[in-house]
Amino acid sequence: MKKLYFLLPFIFFACKSSTSTLPEKEGSSKPIEVTYKVNETEISDFLKYLSSDEMEGRETGTKGIEKAAVFLEDFLKKNNIKPYFKTYRDTLTNFKSPAFNIVGVIEGTDPELKKEFVVLSAHYDHIGIEKKEQADKINNGANDDASGVTSVAAMGKYFSETKSNKRSILIVFFAGEEKGLLGSKSLVQKLKDQNFNLYTQLNIEMIGVPMKRDYLAYITGFDKSNMAAKINEYTGKNTIGFLPKEAEYQLFYRSDNYSFYDVFKKPCQSISTFDFENFDFYHHVSDEFKLMDILHITAFTQELLPAITKIATSPTQEITMNK
Hints:
alpha/beta, 8 helices, metalloexopeptidase activity
């Protein structure tokens, strides 16, 4: 997550509200039953490697993030997810050193709906190595945002194997998020120039540990669209709730979803389980794999599968901006 300069002095004073959004009753559709099972071991192995010391904190423009890029390219290739551009690498136009988003595409199965795109994304960069001398100098970024990348990768594998998307799916791993949303700002301009037909974007941000609330996750910009209510309708569960701190700190504007919303003015939002009470190591060297709750990440991804499947298959665009 892009650095919250104004947030840190208040980080331990989060509100304990459990306000949530229940599934719609009138006119709601029956949740899709997904038999596919997200593999817990694969989640663990992927996250462990992406947040390992070998990646040296994945700072944009460094050798560490280059290793991460190769790892993500290999994952997409292994799972038969094709490059969206000529290669998986989308070069940032707004960063002085060579840096790349990693972008794959899963073509939709419907001849008309495949012209529309659902973007599933997370940022794979982090803040690198501490300059001051200390025992541990590597900011591994397990929660921020290797956890989100892991979940998006698993979603990509799901669609690649099941072919259950009538709309096309763009799988995006952003660089430069920690530098000011640079990767998403660069990519979105290229897509706009191509007349990219965006339906919606789900950006996954910091899902490494669960919340102690009566809903699984919260969404940024809760009142900007009906996405929260629709996801709950699609899962048949209390999956997405409203987190007052999200609104207070305007997190909608602080991750890669905002770059897409700013250009396309479509429902583009981030989903997170970092609630300012459940994780003390934001932008800290202790943000490491050993603190991640693999069962939670697996369950989070599994619970979202019916929702993203419905988003990718509904005959009309049901997720809309609120007026």
